[in-house]
Amino acid sequence: MLNQADNELLTRVGPGTAMGAMLREYWVPACRSAALEAGGAPEKVRLFGEDFVAFRSPDGTPGFLQEACPHRCASLRLARNEEGGLRCIFHGWKFSAAGKCIDAPTEPRGQREKFAESVPVRSHPVHEAGGMLWVYMGARETPPRFPAYEFTALGDDQVQPYRGVIRTNWLQGLEALLDSAHVTFLHATNLGSDDGREYFKDESDYMLGDGAPVFEFDERPYGFREGAIRQELGGVHYARVREVALPFFSFIPAAPHGARVTCCSIPIDDVTTAQWYILYDTEGPLTRDLMSAFGTWSGNPDHFNADMGGPENQWHQDRAAMKAGHWSGIVNRGNAYEDFAVQESMGPIVDRTREYLGTCDRVIYRARRLLLDAVRRHRDTGELAFAAEDIDFAAIRAVSFAFPEGADWREVDPAALAEAAE
Ligand code: FES
Ligand SMILES: [Fe+2]
Fold first, then answer.
1. 254 φ/ψ angles, rounded to the nearest 5 degrees
2. What is the structure's pLDDT at 202?
3. Cβ(91) to ligand 1 under 6 A?
4. pTM value > 0.85
């Protein structure tokens, strides 16, 4: 539970808010790289309650500009995508990716250049990695170091980002990504299905085997890691070690080898959030399509849950299927749809004064504490949390593994364990 003031502090992200100012200091995914065609249509991107266009110049260089033309606010989504920048179709003013007005053909010839130089244009630094265009929207002259997570170094065939959109605040999105306790329940049917068994292998049985794992935490300079330890039959323990790279990323535990998923919750505005599911395999090309492992999706990787429904149709929940044994009634869909339905059902910004937290919510409590400390510190001193210079972002990896009773999960080397079992 939180008081109303803290809930507001954590959830409001528009211009002029303390959380908005802090979150803008981190690099965030804006859109898929593949959505930007060289010389093609600019893509609308809304972030932190503000509207932008991302585009790729004919020579392949990406750019990120305010959506409203600096002249009289026509949308630059309509702009011509020319060599060197976007040209507004209304009066022909042209803007470079670096944020300069480089032509204003409606002005008298002699003054044109000087006038163009005087036009204020908002643009932000971009970086392409992991199949996504990332943007830095913060206040610093020089952007902070890019968080080079292991998936950001992979080639196109090894990493596949999918963007979901939920009609809730970013923190609701993040909290669902952190919550290990719900997996055994909300996703029970998927876990127990043939697809679940094929996808998660032994992990399904372990997760279904103990619905009340013990959570243990280790602080990390980027946030924390959480071991969810389940006690299984026959003297076996099962650990799911999640890595939480605040403020946005939750690395979902997966077996030491093979495909894995990392998720993040990026604010579009106070009541809309991009939930990215980034699939990757560091050992080779992706061979399985996790998006369709448990059923259908919209087919649009920029809005993979566009067909999810909403409160008006109860997210297509099927009561007959529930009577017949399906846990959530959200049938023939992946885990993300179940997560999203629950998140949206809480309302656009959940009233955290009304909650009643249990032991299973320690991770939620911890994340809120860290974020509250971070946002206050940033507001009061300008210091940025979770961004120390010596963080090795590439080493962050979340694993799940079974280990013998009596051992400490922190001491176990899951890769060695997997090899020994083979
Ligand atoms: S509104 Fe864009 S050039 Fe006039
Ligand atoms: Fe989930």
1. -145, 165
2. 67
3. yes
4. yes
Residues 6+ apart with CB under 8 A from 398: 225, 240, 241, 242, 243, 251, 252, 253, 254, 260, 262
What is the sign, positive or negative, of the torsion defined by CA atoms of 52, 222, 249, 155? positive
Residue/partner pairs of 223-231 with CB below 8 Å, 24 or more apart: 223/367, 223/370, 223/386, 224/366, 224/370, 225/398, 226/178, 226/180, 226/363, 227/409, 227/410, 228/180, 228/181, 228/253, 229/409, 230/206
| CB neighbourhood size of 28 (10 A) | 21
Compute the average pLDDT of residues 388-394: 96
Judge if the beta carbon of residue 72 lies within 6 A of ligand 1. yes
Higher pLDDT, 326 or 360: 326
Domains detected in the chain:
27-135 (2.102.10.10), 150-421 (3.90.380)
- Ligand 1 in contact with 80 (CB < 6 A)? no
Report every protein residue that has its C-beta within 5 angstroms of ion ligand 2: 335, 339
Structure tokens at 336: 């993300």
Binned at pLDDT 50, 70 and 90, residue 55 comes out as very high
Centroid of ligand 2 to alpha carbon of 35 (angstroms): 27
Local structure of residue 70 (DSSP, 8 states): T
Take atom 1 of ligand 1 and give the residue whose Cα is closest: 72
Give the distance (Å) from ligand 2 centre to CA of residue 117: 50
What is the residue-averaged pLDDT of the chain? 93
Q: What distance in angstroms lies between residue 89's CA and the mean position of ligand 1's atoms?
A: 7
Which of 72, 111, 103, 112 has its CA nearest to residue 90? 72
**Does residue 104 have its Cβ closer than 6 Å to ligand 1?**
no
